[in-house]
Specification:
Chain lengths: ~325, ~300
Amino acid sequence: MYYLGVDVGSVSTDLVILDQDKQVKEKLYLRTKGKPIAAIQEGFRVLMNKYEKAEIAAVGTTGSGRQIASTLVGADAVKNEITAHAVAALDADDEVRTIIEIGGQDSKIIVIKNGIVTDFAMNTVCAAGTGSFLDRQAERLEIPIEEFGDYALQAKTTVRIAGRCAVFAESDMIHKQQMGYNEGEIIRGLCEALVRNYLNNVGKGKEIQSKVFFQGGVAANKGMKAAFEEALGITVAIPEHYNMMGAIGAALIAKDKVEKTGSTNFKGFDLAESVFSANSFECQGCSNNCEVVKIQENEIVIGCFGDRCGKWSNKLAV
Amino acid sequence: MKVGIPKGLLYYDYQPFFHTFFEELGAELIVSSDTNKDILDKGVKYCVDEACLPVKVFHGHVAEIKDQCDLIVIPRIMQLRKREFICPKFCGLPEMVINSIPDMPRATMAPLYALSKERLFQWAKVVGKEVTHNTAKLSKAFEAAVECQSNYKKGIDDDSYPIKVALSGHPYNIYDNFINMNIVNKLKKLGVGVVTEEVIDEDIKNREVSKLYKKPFWSFARNNYSFTSHMADQKLVNGIIYISSFACGIDSVVIELIKHNIEDFPLLVLKVDEHTGEAGLDTRIEAFVDMLERRRS
């Protein structure tokens, strides 16, 4: 039997299949590109050739798109990213005390004591210092994001970049470029600025104790790891499946849930071939004028989101 | 005479006073709707960009009713207690609104000092004259309004839940369900009860703030600091949720003060702004509740 975890984030959609021993059997890292449904379908097209519906014992979803993903796949557990990341990290190493997680538009710190989350913080309404910002800068400099970290490590000196706000950081970077600093130095400066911003903001007042796990898509960036280690003065460990931790956590939570309930809601891999459409409309039921999104699978409505009162979303709850 | 009352800012605390006063004066009341998307859009359109969300929302409420009334009530609330102040934006609220929204009807400009009944009457006399010149009627309306306000009980104290949180923040963030995305209901659905600052009395507030190095300068600071401090110290709740408007200057200090005081007692700070997407808020609340459940067991 296998356990499926789906993490629909702002930048990436991650799918993971765990085996009976909670080992990663399969992992897919796909770009969401603003189309969560298409990303899940793309993943399922890969999985449907390798696995049978009956082999999947439990499905969990997480990430900012967890509700839409749950509607599509028939999830047994729908969990927030904080809990999912903590569960996955503790399963990988029960000595972890601090988790630094930087994703597409969120960054988080999770503090663990005696195997439970005792404190956490997330960035506020601003996405400075997150993966989508790095993506944008990589694109602007025409450097593949995968090579970003190497550029930072090659730099011998560093440049100070403003890190409090993504807009300020970008203008500061451009000014420094115009002064003649090379790309490596600027990227290293950017990594340091993001770490400074993270520690002063998300990590403010939090006790960062070893063992520290650095996970989420941004952990692929070696420059960020180096900047964290320099700022903290301790080793920062990157778990093997650093960019899959949310999905792994979701699969583990779903596994626990199904062990209690006894059966899964999994709808199968067929959705890969279905035709989905998402339409949004403004509900005129009251003065809130909620923007409601209606998801249809082969012209049958399978779910609605976005209404505050539940008029649409409750009607179709499965 | 039609008197407009915008349902924003401290309306949530003082609605009985304003309603009764103008009704007793013989005015017809035009009260704006509960905050909705249209009000938010209007507020963002008219208000200066740098202001916080609740001030923008207040502008939206004014804009909604301005064409239906002869006089609009924009309370310039200066002080509620001696040697304490409200946010500076309240002191300049009438000017802010009048200069931002076109084609305004007359607005109340008098400063409001609610330090004593006598001082409050100063406001009532000036503003009341806009509606009536009958001084006996004015005095009677004022007495009725004060009476009605003193009988007003608000606040939430859910006792029937296994997990409880203290919901702290400025009243308009706590009671405007559009701004806070209906957080009280969201928490109830997760099996969490809510307690608000009204449950603690003045003695407790005095005792809590007396522990500070210096008396708080702001009334909001006094209320939120003493409430969270008492709830955490006596372990009357499992955690604290503080709702704060993005870029609020007062909260930037108060939240630090609270964090420092309660040490490792669970605290979740939620920043609200123009967002209507609820995923970010939901994630934070759900994770916080997960954490409280696990800490408890």
